[in-house]
Every structure is written in C-alpha cells, then in structure tokens.
Amino acid sequence: xxxxxxxxxxxxxRLRGNPVVLxxxxxxxxxxxxxxxxxVYLGLTSGLTVLLYVLQAEAINRTSTPTGSDIGRVxxxxxxxxxxxxxxxxGPAFTASAISGEREHRxxxxxxxxxxxxxxxxxxxxVSALSxxxxxxxxxxxxxxxxxxxGGVSVEELVLSLVxxxxxxxxxxxxxxxxxxxxxxxxxxxVLTYSYALFTTVGLPIFLAIFLPIFSPLVRLINSSAVQAxxxxxxxxxxxTNPIATMLITQTFIAERxxxxxxxxxxxxxxxxxxxxxxIPYTIFAVLTSVVLMWLTVQRIxxxxxx
Length: 307
Description:
This protein is mainly alpha-helical. Helix content is 79%, strand content 3%.
C-alpha cells in the first residue's frame, strides 16, 4: 500500500514537492542537450519562416497583387504546422518511455518501494515530459507574432492555435504514458503510441478524403434538412478528433466568418442550423481522453504494485 503524502496541499505545492518532477526536470535541463534541441528547433523554424516569406513575396510580385496579409497568414500557418508536428510526433517520445524506461533500467521496483503514490508517479512523469514541450511551444510564439507585422492574423487565431496545440500535447502525452505503463518495453510502447498518432492525424483525413466526395452528393440529393444536418454534425464529430483538420477549419471559420464560437450554417435546403467551431469539441475530446487515460494509467500502476 502506498501513502498519499499531504493530500490537502495545493496544486503548486504538490508540483514543487513531487520528487519525480524535480528529478526529471533537473536531469533534462541540467545538461546541454535540452538547450541544443531548443536551438535546433528554433533555428529550423526561423529558417522555414524566412523561406516562406521569400517564396510568398516572390509569388505576390509575380501576380502583381501586393498584400501583406497573405504573407502574414502563410508565415503563421507555417510556424503552427511545425509546432503541430512537434507535439504530434516528437512529444509522445518523452512519455512513451517514461515508465517502461524505468523497467528497462531496473529502477521501477525501487521507485515503487517509496511512499510515492501511483497518482503522484503518473502526474510527475506526465508533467516533467510535457513541460519541455510546452517550453518549446511558447519559445516559438515570437515567430508566430511576426505575422502581426504583415496583418491578416488576429490575436484570437494565435490564442486558439495555442489552445489546440496544448490540448494535442496533453492528449498524445497521456497516450504515450498509458502505453508506457501497460508495456514492459519502450519499443512496443512507442509503436502503439505512434500508431495512435498516425491514425488520428493521417488515417482520419484519408478516410474523409475518400468517403466525403462519395457521400456528399448523395446527401445533397436527399432534400431533407434532418439528413443534411445529421451528416454535417457527423462529419464535424470526425473532424473534431483530428488536430490538423481542427486547426485548418477553425482558422478558416475565423478568416471567412470572423467567428470563434458558434454560428449559423446554411444547408443546401436553405435551412440554417447552429454549428460549433471545431476547436471547442476537439479540446473537450482531448481533455476527456487524457483524463480517462490518466485514470487507467494510475490503475495499471497500482495493479503492478499489488502483483
């Protein structure tokens, strides 16, 4: 049986007093590796930003339609795309080895003999892994803010992009931590984590790209507002489970409709139905998924302690 230490302490006190958080963060930030990774990440992001600016400026000169807002949006989307790639395919690597790595180094049993509870262990591993990802995300905010010099990007878009990125980092981080808890080795845990990431980010868009062109004309032929509304909401649910689609459609709604929440969408029948911007259900989905996986991870750790 493990003992919950200081159950009534506040969140900040529990964070500072969690030995796993302190150990992991000190180990990660003490050497030059963390700063080298950040330097390379910001260098590549800055280089891509300059490249996008040059290409977009040349395209504008050829079309003789000089508009700075186009440059601003391209630069903003480019930086966000890099950050989304970071949290989707690089971030889970920090959590997929969080617990299985302890087993491979034969330190897990020693860790479980301490008074550290299963929830504190899970929380410490998750926070220490996601803290560095969040640091990288916030470090790139000045590059995103360059888009404000050209226009075409609002503060709401910047804030919502960070919300989606943080929700994605939390979701994939907890996925990696869960597979790390149920698998004995890091390799199968990483394979399962990236399989989930590829399915949600690549598999669902491919599914939509194949089936939407087939079913969309059929839905339009059915002159029924109920059927068209059901199809619209069903596609919205699928979109709201994919971070890339959520990001693109949310940015489109902001740019074209100037809406960040709910608005009225006109069906082919002419009837208007309420529609919620995808970032809202996606954030709820990511948070709920993360909470469930954190609970399952804690249960798995407790089960292993009783074995």
